[in-house]
Write a structure and sequence with these properties.
The protein is about 40% helix and about 15% strand. The chain is α/β, with parallel strands linked by helices and about 350 residues long. The strands form 2 sheets. Strands 1, 4, 5, 6, 7 and 8 form a 6-stranded mixed beta sheet that branches. β4 and β5 (about 210-220) form a beta hairpin. α7 runs parallel beside α14 (about 335-360). The longest helix has 27 residues, at about 335-360.
Length: about 350
């Protein structure tokens, strides 16, 4: 029999929100890991709030909502609030009841910025990795490192001389039409007036220069999870300096660890510094003409070939962060905010992969 197209108009629903999410939904396993990590950060959350004033958005709910924004490629806080208004799955994951009101998008953004003060993104990443079921998946001996460009939220027209021209400011504050042909611009003479932390950078010869930042990730080689992340201004040495900073915390042990990397890390001072802190540099050899710092002492071991094969998996993480989580071009300005956003996206990536790895290990 054909069903009716009439709307029921019932005022009450007696179906529990918990029952509306199927038992095998992927978000259920992610929710368990997320809640455990958030519970470990309860003391850090308490330090960010005073005992006065009206209650704000619970930081646990705020972070769960931000995870959904990364998982489902929601482009803005305004769209995220709209999705929370009608999507029962989103309400269940965040912890909102059927009749709970959704926050205003501007209120949500202001409360999110509060979490910057406590470095909550980095602590959340550590809390996810510290859970026993996740920790047993991690390698403590073999790592890989790489960096990826994050385009700044700033136009090239905002890249202006540090000493402004006395000729005027244009028509009504708008970006006036500009012809850049033949003009020499560099980070020493110009800067972006939109994002002062953004720097002009070209990924390779013949490629377009863009205003961007560089995100760094340290991956353990057993399961391909990112164990450390940070974002810096771009420079010719930023990747190597960040790699040394990230691996140093894992190198303080009697047994040497390995660090795989691409040929961009093949520099004599970087390789020597790794050996000084008891890290074996499994770095790809540079064959572009200059002398490589990697010799037979390293390449003769079978582990070197394994590191070179596995290190490319970090590109999968960067691809997910930029395409799915929406960080190909950031929607924030300023190094602290973008660093927070990048680190949180790394934690989201680990949460997506961890349940499948845990299930395969049991």
């Amino acid at each position: 029999m054909r069903g009716s197209d009439e709307r029921s108009g019932k005022l009450f629903s007696y179906v529990d929100l918990e029952k509306r999410v199927r038992a095998d939904h992927p978000l259920r396993a992610i929710r368990v890991l997320t809640d455990s990590a958030l519970e470990a950060l309860s003391g850090d959350f308490a330090a960010l709030y005073s005992g006065l004033g009206r209650p704000s958005i619970a930081p646990e709910m705020l972070l769960r909502a931000m995870l959904l924004q990364a998982f489902y490629s929601v482009r803005s806080e305004r769209q995220l609030m709209e999705r929370l208004e009608f999507d029962l799955l989103f309400r269940w994951f965040v912890g909102l009841g059927m009749d709970d009101p959704v926050w205003d998008h501007s209120t949500f953004s202001k409360n999110r910025d509060r979490l910057l003060d406590g470095e909550i993104a980095a602590k959340f990443l550590s809390a996810v990795l510290a859970q026993p079921r996740v920790k047993r998946l991690l390698s403590s001996d073999h790592f890989s490192v790489d960096g990826t460009l994050i385009e700044a939220w700033a136009s090239m027209k905002s890249f202006k001389p540090k000493e402004p021209d006395a000729g005027g400011t244009g028509d009504g504050g708008r970006n006036a039409p500009t012809d850049f042909r033949g003009e020499k611009r560099s980070n020493q003479t110009h800067r972006s007036t939109t994002d002062l932390d953004a720097r002009l950078y070209r990924k390779g010869p013949g490629m377009e220069a863009k205003l961007c930042f560089i995100g760094h990730g340290l991956m353990e080689n057993r399961s391909g999870l990112i164990v450390d992340a940070r974002l810096t201004r771009v420079s010719g040495h930023a990747e190597r300096l960040a790699a040394l900073d990230m691996i140093e915390g894992f190198a303080d042990r009697p047994r040497a660890v390995t660090l795989g990397a691409d040929k961009g890390y093949d520099a004599a001072d970087f390789v020597e510094e790794l050996r000084t802190i008891n890290v074996r540099p499994h770095v790809a050899r540079n064959t572009s003409g200059r002398r490589s710092a990697i010799d037979r002492r390293t390449t003769r071991h079978p582990g070197y070939a394994a590191s070179q094969r596995i290190r490319k998996r970090i590109e999968e993480a960067f691809g997910w962060i930029k395409v799915v989580a929406g960080l190909r071009k950031t929607k924030l300005r300023g190094l602290p905010k973008i660093d927070w956003s990048f680190t949180f996206a790394v934690a989201a990536y680990n949460l997506v992969r961890a349940p499948k790895l845990i299930a395969a290990a049991t």
